């Protein structure tokens, strides 16, 4: 995963990656 600058950004990135992988 990419570097996490902020916890919120990390969560958003995680959700985006999960959605992309699920698609």
From TrEMBL:
Protein known as: Uncharacterized protein
């Amino acid at each position: 995963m990419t570097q996490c600058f902020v916890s919120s950004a990390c969560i958003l990135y995680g959700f985006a990656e999960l959605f992309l992988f699920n698609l």
